[in-house]
Amino acid sequence: MIAHFKEVSEFAKLEILESHKLPIAIVGAGGIVDGAHLPAYKKAGLEIVGITDVDQDRAKDVANRHGISIVYPDLATLLRDSKAKVIDIAVPPAVQRDVFIEVAKSGRHILAQKPLATTVADGEMIIKATKESGIIAGVNQQLRFEEGIAAAYKMVDLGWVGKVTSISITVNLATPWEMFPWAKNMEKLEIMVHSIHYHDVIRWFLGDPISVYSVAGRTKDQFPIGETRTVSTYKYPDEVTAIVHANHVNRGGDNYAEFRIDGDGGAIRGTLGLLYDYPTGRVDTLEVNSAKLPTDGWTPYPVTTRWFPDAFIGTMGSLLGAIAGKDKLRSSVEENLGTLKLVAALYESIATNRVIEL
Ligand SMILES: NC(=O)c1ccc[n+]([C@@H]2O[C@H](COP(=O)([O-])OP(=O)(O)OC[C@H]3O[C@@H](n4cnc5c(N)ncnc54)[C@H](O)[C@@H]3O)[C@@H](O)[C@H]2O)c1
Fold first, then answer.
1. Given pLDDT bands bounded at 50, 70 and 90, which one contains residue 1?
2. Which atom of ligand 1 is nearest to the CA of 93?
3. What's the CA-to-centroid distance between 7 and ligand 1, angstroms?
4. What atom of ligand 1 comes closest to residue 143's alpha carbon?
5. Ligand 1 centre and the CA of 47: distance in Å?
6. Could you tell me which CATH class the domain 146-307+333-357 is placed in?
7. pTM exceeds 0.70
8. What would the pLDDT profile of 150-199 be if each residue is shown by its tens digit?
9. How far apart are CA 128 and CA 118, in angstroms?
10. Which CATH number is correct for 13-142, 3.40.50.300, 3.40.50.720, 2.60.200.30, 3.40.1160.10?
11. Which of 32, 175, 308, 313 to mutate to test the pocket of ligand 1 (most atoms within 8 A of CB)?
12. Alpha-carbon span 351 to 330, nearest angstrom
């Protein structure tokens, strides 16, 4: 069993080779950069050579606390003066397209935040800019690098659960939306900024579905105007199914975040510890029950890192590996267009109360 787990942990491990490292500059000094990008990059030993934000006080505060020596007054100055080879963008979704295009024109490689864009058309403009400038660009859908999810992916790849027949992801949370002021007036909210991670991961495991159906709701006195609970179902060939159920206004005080992958030769189940107490979190869990391996019932896999901040090493590491010509980018902007199309289909289903074919 330990030998089998070694192969899985080799795939799921988060480290960046010295020979892949390049100087990085950051656009946007908000909560996610402060709380996840920079702690992850410190852990991985990456060099952050500069930062900018339209809120200069915020940029200076983050730079001081994380030891970044240069705060640029604006993006144009950063692009003109910085020695950065990679630009890490973490600005609100509504402004990311224009920032991305400006950075791409400078020839720097890019790690963009999710959602890459709020419309498929904007996503296509971003991909056009990527191609025209010849850069490599990834998207921070870092749930693909969360150790438990990545380990589950490798277990499936190794055939431990046979053919996958269904995937379910269920989260019931009291999300502190007040932490994201830019999200308050987003009419498309829950799928666009949160469940997009789950939908992206289901695509990673199963590819694009034949069709989807989704419903959404709000609850009394919630902070944001957009939907805060969604239930989305997927249909695949051969009666394979998937479901994402996300509720962000849990007034029961019993937060949980569970995923499960069923196959015809076993099953995998796990939890995303981060969401039990966001953003502090707790340890993740992962278990496998395999007739193929075999296991004696549910066998725990030792997850040693967390979604936040550790998985952020994965998205940046994958980009750096791709720039070095060594790795395939796990979450490229081109691949992410499929996730944007899926998100658009889910919102179309919510708006029309219809099954949407992809
Ligand atoms: N990958 C993840 O798991 C994850 C988690 C949280 C947030 N995010 C994404 O990260 C992005 C930022 O989220 P946040 O929580 O840090 O938000 P935030 O509001 O805390 O920070 C955003 C920052 O961007 C700055 N900004 C706005 N426009 C700018 C521009 N044109 N140029 C430079 N700076 C600009 C703002 O002044 C602010 O400091 C969002 O797109 C969000 O969806 C991703």
1. low
2. 41
3. 36
4. 3
5. 21
6. alpha beta
7. yes
8. 999 999 999 999 999 999 999 999 999 998 888 999 999 999 999 999 99
9. 16
10. 3.40.50.720
11. 32
12. 31
